Amino acid sequence: MASRPVFVAREKLPYVMVYSPEFTWNSGLSKSQQQKNIVALHGAHEKRFPDQKVLEISSKSTEPLGNALSAFHLQKYVPAIGRSVPLECVYQGGKVFAAGGPYTDLYEAAPKDAKRDPRFEKSGMLRSFFFDGEEYPLTPKTAFYDWLYILALKENPELGEALMAYDGFTDIVYNPNKSVGCQARSAALYVGLSRAGLLNGVPTFTDIAKLKY
Fold first, then answer.
1. Statement: the pTM of the whole predicted model exceeds 0.90
2. Which of 7, 29, 43, 162 has the fewest CB atoms within 10 Å of its CB?
3. Phi and psi based region of residue 165 (left: phi greater than 0; alpha: psi -120 to 50; beta: remaining)
4. Are 185 and 73 spatial neighbours (Cβ–Cβ below 8 Å)?
């Protein structure tokens, strides 16, 4: 057996509920095996919460919408280069370390390459984030990633609208011991805040950080 988180949108603080049901794990790293795990995870969650509609957000998703909402595919506009690039590149390119960064050249990289850039391991501790001429703190710990994800959805309103049909979100490859930001969690936060009427405009980083979630 295994357990993985389902991030469920809420209309009040902390706007995201995390529930980790147990399910039978299918071993193997292939996309087909991961998709079996997605089906099993969703099935386990829906047994307890039958009224909730769940979406996998990753490149492993069986749903086109889930693929489009993956940070590898969701586009975020970058003023410095005058065009939109995958959100993953914006996030990785915004990392500022004690001995290096931000490596904004990663805006132009492939998402997988941006995520695994070898300079990260040689640059010391992560110190802050950078985007569009401003530096942002590491805390709250997911605020910068959540903010970028919400901005990207604001820039792609058709995806944001489609997202509202779902209540829970998963990312089958998310490992909280290796990653801070999670696209499924950010999606749940977007839906929760939208349902609470708190995303009528374009939020600032401070708007997201002050939620104290």
1. yes
2. 29
3. alpha
4. no
**In the block, which residue shows the tokens 């050249």?**
105
| In the block, residue with structure tokens 């089906």 | 39
121 φ, ψ to 5°? -75, -15
The Cα–Cα gap between 47 and 132 comes to: 44
Each residue's pLDDT, cut to its tens digit, for the chain (213 residues) gives 899 999 999 999 999 999 999 999 998 879 999 999 999 999 999 999 999 999 999 999 999 999 999 999 999 999 999 999 999 999 999 999 999 999 999 999 999 999 999 999 999 999 999 999 999 999 999 999 999 999 999 999 999 999 999 999 999 999 888 888 999 999 999 999 999 999 999 999 999 999 866
Best CA proximity match to 162, nearest among 86, 67, 50, 83: 67
The token pair at 113 is 């390459």
Task: Give the DSSP H or E segment for 126.
Answer: strand 126-131
On whether the CB atoms of residues 179 and 162 are closer than 8 A, the answer is: no
Crossing angle of helices 183-195 and 143-155, rounded to 10°:
70
Q: Calculate the CA 136 to chain-centre distance.
A: 18
CA–chain centroid gap for 34, Å, is 18
